[in-house]
Amino acid sequence: MIRFPNPGSDINNIVGIFYDIYDVLNSKDFFSLDDISSVLVDRNLVTSSGFMGDEALLRSTRKDRSRDPLYNQSKLYSELFKVLGWIHPLKRRLNFQFTYFGAHVVAAKLDPSSILEESVLGIAYPNEILNIKGNYQLRPFATFLRTLGALDGLLARDELIIGPMRLDNDRDDQLFGNMIKEIQGLRGSWQVLDDKMKAVADQRGIKLNTMGNYTRFPLAILKWTGWTVDETNKVIYNKSKKFKKLTAKGYRALELVNRSKDIRKIDLEKIDTTTRDAIIRLSFYQILERADFDTDPVESVLVEDRILVENYLGAVDQPILFSPFQELHSDYLHSIFPKFSGNEVSKTPIELHFSHTHGGTTETQYSNVELKGEIEPPIRESASDHQNVGREIPDVFKEPMERNWDLGTSIEYIMSQYAGVNKDVFYPIVEELFKAIGYDCKLSKTGRNYERWDAIIKSSKHSIPIEIKSPGEEQFLSVKAIRQALENKVILLARAPYPTEFQDTSLVVCYNLPNDRSEVNSLINDVFEVYGIVIGAIDFRTLLQISGSHLLMQKAHNRGQLERSRGFIRLSDP
């Protein structure tokens, strides 16, 4: 059974951690697992024993490294980044270098979705990067898509385990067909499926829960890419069961897989060196082109390659499904592609180019929210701007207030207590804090399609949709949240379930503002310049400062400034 490294199922967080690691370590000739751990700790991306930062590292470190939590977490990230072709191991297997492919992932930082899709389609076994147990001939994500296509676009998690994740050779049409028939034969009886899962677990010597864990990354990717959506079906197994359903985008990805020439490492061994190098070079730049990179600057280099490859394939302009940095080691690829020296890419005709351009100012956009000297008296429910203002103390502030801590100590304590919570805990906290400072804030109910936002501040004139990102979802604000905030405002204006004005903000609440603020800031400014829509982002610490000032210091904030805030919100005295 094919196994994927499992550092987590939050794809945005995984990609963001790669950016952080690259940002800190790309100037080094090589880096180790301890270097990765240091980045995770320095940027507060992990916790250990409930602590962050240096204390987390201290509490995690063990003499036996195999029992060191942070070391093992770093190892999982390194394994996944190797699978994706973004880093390569050196001769000492626990030392690494960033690849030329990985540098392009960073270049696509503003919108990495397309290049990540290419990265997962490029995964193939066996390869020169990983030591994989078993005699697999498998391109897993292409096989997942083919399986979905053969099963009318629906695939359950257990079927993924029993079928494509257990397939030895996806190039053997008979084996693939038998696998599809086996899944079809299981359908109709949940008990038959359950018995098959237990039999596979016994045969492989793997616990059922462990097999389920192996699917976390594949299922997260299938959803994150938009290739599938979740759908509950009560008919297929005569019992309510969750399936992955292939979307229109998923069918387009499947169509690309079906019309491409699938080339593997083993195929290249049978080809002359000149043609082999041409295939390697052309396939890589096809990947970049499909991932929205500008490949015009390298077209002159690829003219002869195209001729050689077309002669080999016997077809003109057939896409190639082959990812060099995921199947071949850099020792060979350095002779074909630029080699990294520190954080520089050697000056050759082939350099980094990314076609996306973004207007707007590069200066970070901030919105100041000022404190007033006194709290306004509560206004009764007849004035809808201040409905449900109970002046109740939020749960997060009860212990700090009982201990008579000052505001700074209280906030840092609360931040540490909620550093890794998920939305089931974080969303109600955000609702409580907004209520405490005078807003009629309500969380949205699951299943209401007209309420795409996570929460809403209701008002007679200035209702504000809120997109919330818990620290369990992402530690640092991402561009995806900004896109969702844009969608929230558009839906609120179009469907008008609550009164609002065009100039009012669409709010994002996050745990931390991003380390590299340029991409998020640029998108906020681009949205404003192109659409005139205002998006504001407030981190958990600032929201605690506003509510804490209100509760502990009897200082209210300037409501009008918050309602029209654009960019990153920060607190300031008048």
Compact overview of the structure:
46% of the residues lie in helices and 11% in strands. With 574 residues, it is of the alpha/beta class.
Distance between the termini: 63 Å
Question: What is the number of beta strands?
Answer: 17
CATH top level class name of the domain at 366-572:
Alpha Beta
User: Helical content, roughly?
Assistant: 40-55%
Overall mean pLDDT: 84
Rg, Cα atoms, Å: 26 Å
Query: Could you say what the CATH topology of the domain at 366-572 is called?
Result: Restriction Endonuclease
Content-based structural category: alpha/beta
Count of alpha/pi helices: 25
Largest sheet properties: 7 strands, mixed
Highlighted features:
574 residues, globular, alpha/beta, 25 helices, three-stranded antiparallel beta sheet, Restriction Endonuclease
Care to describe what's here?
The chain is of the alpha/beta class and 574 residues long. Among the domains are: 98 residues, no CATH class; 207 residues, Restriction Endonuclease (3-Layer(aba) Sandwich), CATH 3.40.91.30. It contains 25 helices and 17 strands. The chain has a 7-stranded mixed β-sheet, sandwiched between helices. A hairpin with a 7-residue loop joins strand 5 and strand 6. Helix 1 crosses helix 2 and helix 7 packs across helix 13. The longest helix has 18 residues. About 9% of the residues have low confidence.
